[in-house]
Amino acid sequence: MLYLLVAHHVHGHTTLLNLFRYLTFRAGGACLTALAIALILGNPVIRQLKRIQREGQPIRAVGPERHILEKAGTPTMGGVLILAALFISTLLWADLQNGFVWAVLFVTAVFGAVGFADDYRKLARRNTDGLSKKARLGCEFGASLIAGWWMQHLMPPDLANHLAFPFVKDYMLPLGYAFPIFAMVTVTGFGNAVNLTDGLDGLATVPVVIAALVFALISYLVGNHVFADYLQLHAVPGTGELAIFCSALVGAGLGFLWFNAPPASVFMGDTGSLALGGALGAVAVATKHELVLCIVGGLFVAETLSVIIQVFWYKRTKRRVFLMAPLHHHFEKKGWQEPKIVIRFWIVAVVLGLFGLATLKLR
């Protein structure tokens, strides 16, 4: 909004307002705006959530015993704070004529709405059973399939139906009409991966911020022909604007972390975790870096695999591979304190983020 207003008035003039034409300036502005909004709205939103929820988020009886004592009464649905800061900042600073921005916002909004409905149902029933799996996955698959088809038609024809590989500069795998389905699996899978990781105070928030930082840079580079050619990346015109979205996500995440740091004053709930995971998946699809997301978000992948392995092996042998899944609960059962688990997982997320950045040059 600001970009369109300012660009119209400063066209052809040399003023400080010309800064609005630079992605880097607007990305910084989006980050700071989202951070300020989250910090300003944080306490009022938490007070309102506490007033409405009273008893807070329902805690799983089969989870770690200490959660029932330490986390009972903490309100959930804090994802509304992240989404408010993210959407307001993006709409202020991004070029709203860019189709990729709207496609990613669409995914984020639908996944956030599904998560909100899931959280609301849990609170209304005072148990951990939210929406049915069919209803939840049906909405997620539908939204991500539409977004995949949408972004496919925004890309150059020679890239639209192809899958790029990290460390490989020339070859791309043609997926043909299966590309929207691949996009659907990527976005939905990553949305649920972040959701599975969100089990300890701050555990999911920082890795999401790290992944958003990495993809802010990737979006900027892929959307710029000069940088893309130099780094031998597949240029996707228009995706540079997603750096604004990712930067806003960084600011919103940091603002939420202020209140989510141990001991958390609020949980993001499915409202936040599904939306953030879906958003990262959509950005990865738009920038043709889906496989790099699996590296950068390797922590989320590991958490998801721990659940898949646990369920598969238990059904076959009636034995457990992990003391409890997802993976962070396994370490809780081993006696690790929550801050140790969270900080060590953050360190892993930083290392994976750096490794993901390395793929931009090692080709």
Task: Present the secondary structure layout.
Elements: H1 2-10, H2 23-53, H3 65-70, H4 79-93, H5 99-125, H6 133-152, H7 157-160, E1 162-164, E2 172-174, H8 179-197, H9 205-222, H10 225-231, H11 242-260, H12 269-286, H13 290-296, H14 298-317, H15 327-333, H16 338-358
Antiparallel strand pairs: 1-2
Helix pairs in contact: 2-4, 2-11, 4-5, 4-11, 4-12, 5-6, 5-12, 6-8, 6-12, 8-12, 8-14, 9-11, 9-12, 9-16, 12-13, 13-14, 13-16
Structure characteristics:
363 residues, mainly alpha, globular
Structure report:
By secondary structure, this protein is mostly helical. The chain has one domain. It is about 70% helix and about 0% strand. The chain has 16 helices and two strands. A two-stranded antiparallel ribbon has the order 1-2. A hairpin with a 7-residue loop joins strand 1 and strand 2. Helix 9 runs parallel beside helix 12 and helix 12 packs across helix 13. The longest helix has about 30 residues. The radius of gyration is 20 Å and the shape is globular. The two termini are about 35 Å apart. The mean pLDDT is about 90.
